[in-house]
Amino acid sequence: MPRLSAALTLPDGVAAPGYVPADHGCGIVHLGLGAFHKAHQAVYTDDALALDGGDWRITGVSLRSTGAVEELAPQDCRYTLIEQGEGAPQARVIASIARALSGATDIAAIRAALADPATRIVSLTVTEKAYGIERTTGGADPAHPSVAADLRAPDQPTGVLGLLVQALGARRAAGIAPFTVLCCDNLPENGAMLRGGVIDFARRTDPDLAGWIREAVAFPSTMVDRITPAQTEKTRAEALRLTGAEDHAAIETEPFTQWVIEDRFTAGRPAWEKAGAIFVADVAPYEKMKLRMLNGTHSMLAYAGFLAGHRYVRDTMNDAALARLIRRHLGAAAATLAPLPGIELAGYAAQLQERFANPAIAHETYQIAMDGTQKLPQRLLAPALETLGAGAPLRPFAFAVAAWMRYCLGRSDTGENYALRDPMEAEISSRLRGLDNAAAIIDSLSTLPGLMPPALAGASAWQEPLNDILARMLRDGVGQAIAREAELAETD
Ligand code: CS2
């Protein structure tokens, strides 16, 4: 079987790039070369290259692993994007990634790419935990492993903040204009957040540079959305069936895609609007809507669903009781949002339920359950705190957080042990060791550093439902607790 490559002729029905990739230079370095980037920003860029041209191909960087490079490099960084919607799967080959580098083996080339005058945008999807930014202060977290390492050796950085600061410093010293930094992770006000972390890191190593970054570097915020499961053997088999070629980098995703961006690019940008991206003055309300409705509900259904034995998100939608709670959560999250011009939140909620139910997307609840301590604050705890302030019922959020707490025990009702996969995993396990009653578990997890807003944790309107639900999960099992909760939701 041939391997996918630039030279391969694609069969009818598989869309080839609508431009000559070799005619376009690189203008973007992307940190975080995972499935999400390949299904989202790389696709918008592929479309923008076809519709508007420009030197905007991407140098893709995987900061830790070598897997993405091993998959992409032998196939000229091309890969098949498979859209799984209602009809037959649609395949196209993406060519916007020009080369792939790994922090494990190519760190010098990565630093050179970041300092290269041709690089005008550095975009990121490195996951919430990789930034090393303290949520409470908004500064760099010196206890974060890569921040600590890069503060010790700022000239040899390997982490996100260290690499950005070193590259900006090198550009400034050489009289090269800065790149625009485009954070595409699911974090609130992600551009402003990253800006704060970068400036604080620079302040600790080179205060003068910190001042220059403050003045000269743009960090537009973005809201990104496309449900993209991790690639599996089935994905590769599907790519082989559709293209007739072996593709180790193929990915599957849903037809829906959305990208809302603040239009502040100091060194130009691809014509992403021609590919469907929406440019707005303020992304924050869109981000809040997506984080609270899509991601908040995702986290709830991931913990409850995983513990109830549902492997995939689509299975949770086929569980009538859990589907009821999903609807309830979407409503509670929507109630925390200010009206958004042109968006009808009930319609958005209905569309989300359809997306979650997509039978062709195998999105694992266990994948979404990962890194809970990094996700809960913006997805569940911030809206819960606002709901408390508004005097509205907290039960939907308490249910979601109780499910996370139950998940933190690392053992299912059927006695199966699983890894939490969270940067605070060791701390959580040591705090929970030997605890088996709801009140003690809530106490110990509510005081994890930086997680729970004290005003929420201390409120009886929060503690009561949280205690009630977690106690029931422990006593009757998660399946029974879901059934009981759905009955309560019915009578709301
Ligand atoms: C999910 C997101 O894994 C998770 O935590 O909630 O990756 C979600 O699928 C995307 O944000 C959808 O755009």
Report on this structure.
With 492 residues, this protein is of the alpha/beta class. 48% of the residues lie in helices and 11% in strands. The protein has two domains: 267 residues, NAD(P)-binding Rossmann-like Domain (Rossmann fold, 3-Layer(aba) Sandwich), CATH 3.40.50; 207 residues, N-(1-d-carboxylethyl)-l-norvaline Dehydrogenase, domain 2 (Orthogonal Bundle). The strands form three sheets. It has a five-stranded parallel β-sheet, sandwiched between helices. A four-stranded mixed β-sheet has the order 1-5-4-10, sandwiched between helices. A three-stranded mixed β-sheet has the order 9-11-12, with helices on one face. Helix 10 crosses helix 15. The mean pLDDT is 97.
Write a concise keyword list for the protein shown above.
492 residues, alpha/beta, Rossmann fold, N-(1-d-carboxylethyl)-l-norvaline Dehydrogenase, domain 2, 2 domains, 5-stranded parallel sheet, 4-stranded mixed sheet, 21 helices, 48% helix, globular, binds D-mannonic acid
